[in-house]
Amino acid sequence: MSTFASLPLAAQSPRAASDAAAAASDARSAASDAPRSARRWALPAGLTRAQTVTAAAIVGAALALAGIGLYLSFEHVAVFAHERLGFATLGKARLFTVGVDVGILVLIALDLLMAWLRRPIGWVRFPVWLLTGATLVLNAASAAPTTGAWTTVDYVAAFAHGIVPVLFIAVVEIGKTAIDRVVRQAAPAEGVPLHRWFLSPLPTFTLWRRMKLWAVGSYAAAVERDKELRVYRVMLERQHGSVRKAPADARLPLTMARYGLSVDEALALPQEAEARLEAEEDTRAAEEKRRAERTAQAEIARLRAAGDVQSARAQVSAATSRAEVEAAAAVAAAERAATADTEAHQSATAARADAERAAAEQAAAEARRCAAEADKAEAEARRDTAEAERRTVEAEDELALSSRDRKIRRVARMILAAGGSAENLPLDAVMAAYSVSQTTASEYRTAAAEVLAHGYAPAS
Q1: Helical H runs in 34-89?
Q2: Which range, 138-147, 256-265, 285-294, 410-419, is most confident?
Q3: Greatest CA separation found in the chain?
Q4: CA 368/CA 371 separation, integer angstroms
């Protein structure tokens, strides 16, 4: 149960205000749905003939009063303007008077017309009052004595000169109010009443400011909202002892009032926030579900594609096996045919084979003789090499070379035996000859190449 629900007085006032605002909105909507000509000129329902005649008589009397006022004011003000206000001629003074009177009539007519069209212009009446006040002053001043002190009769005369303009303005204001009520009888008053400005200026300004800032449509709704907020504050203090001790959610109406939110709207903010969070969670869950479904569909498609690949592979394998069997059969047939051909030619080649065998035996004997001679020559070469190696070792002994230098010179001889280029001697041969690492073998080969480059030649 919400905090605001436990405050029955505060809960009832916003509901009434909202109902009234809804009714006013419905009335305005119904009025706006009517044809434009009907909304502009239709009279209120139930107006009797007598009321219509009375209204026409009042309008006629008002026009007559305006004519009388203009007639009486015209001459007095024109003469006064010519004699006292410095207008050069009476014609110019009369033109000035006509301008003021016509201006008053035009502004009054415009004010009444805009009220009839439901588009009132509030500030128009102020120029009317200003010009009428000027006319009153000029009329009263025209009755002032030119010499001597004012007497009672002079005051009465000045008052009498201003009665008709005052009556005319009063009739105009009453007529404007009547027109406004006739054409907008279902709509509430939009502005703040004048008496409230005099009775409570500062709170009234705050109320008016809130209406303008947050588009509160009617004065009644603004008052109900302000009353609702005040009652809510009092009930919070009654329930919690102090507004500061109330929960944060319960203080929302007081915090959000500056932003134009009513008590109901402010109290609904946490629920709206939760609803938004729930909606976001639902959206996120739905998105995750769609993502999972897309992933599952992709996996299903992948598995189907893999199955298709496996099926294709099985088909290719079966086709390959058949082709291999067919090829093997063809090869076997070819081999049988070749065997038959071979058997047919065996008898023909037997004689050639015997002759070739005899020739091969003679060639083998010659080859064995050549091989023996080659072995003898190789043995002699090894003997010569061993002798050269011995002499080289003796020469190195005489030079008292170190073990490393001896190894380097032996590697140099290995390079010469490999063709004279260090690149032709594999490191593996050096590593095997001296049982050293690859790095050491590389160092020996490099040093041997330098020795050869400096003119080293083994003893012959």
Answers
A1: 36-41, 49-83
A2: 285-294
A3: 183
A4: 5
Give the separation between CA 93 and CA 77, rounded to whole angstroms: 8
Q: Which amino acid is at 5?
A: A
This prediction's pTM: 0.34
Nearest C-alpha neighbor of 18 from the set 263, 243, 199? 263
Q: What is the Cβ-side half-sphere exposure of residue 367, based on CA atoms within 13 angstroms?
A: 6
pLDDT of residue 300: 92
Q: Look at the alpha carbons of 170, 172, 178, 184 in this order and tell me if their dihedral is positive or negative.
A: negative
In the DSSP assignment, the letter for residue 244 is G
Among candidates 228, 224, 212, 210, which has minimal Cα distance to 267?
228
Q: Distance between CA atoms of 43 and 183, rounded to whole angstroms?
A: 8
* Cα distances (angstroms) measured from residue 327 to each of 323, 342, 404: 6, 22, 66
Residue 209: its H or E element: helix 201-213
Can you say whether the dihedral through the CA atoms of 8, 13, 15, 19 is positive or negative?
positive
DSSP code string of 296-333: HHHHHHHHHHHHHHHHHHHHHHHHHHHHHHHHHHHHHH
At a CB cut-off of 8 Å and minimum separation 6, what does 54 contact? none
Q: Say how far apart CA 332 and CA 315 lie, in whole Å.
A: 26
User: Could you tell me if 141 and 115 are in contact, meaning their C-beta atoms sit under 8 angstroms apart?
Assistant: no
Q: How far apart are CA 108 and CA 233, in angstroms?
A: 46
CA–CA distance, 6 with 257 (Å, rounded to integer): 20
Amino acid identity at 172: V
Distance CA(45)–CA(374), nearest Å, equals 147
Total Cβ atoms within 10 A of residue 136: 20
> In the chain, helix, strand, coil percent, each to 5?
80, 0, 20
Nearest to 171, CA basis, from 87, 92, 78, 108: 108
Q: Write down the pLDDT at residue 30.
A: 46
Mean pLDDT, to the nearest integer, of 405-420? 83
Phi-psi bin for 406: left (phi > 0), alpha (psi -120 to 50), beta?
Answer: alpha
Amino acid at 7: L
Nearest to 353 by CA among 365, 342, 339: 342
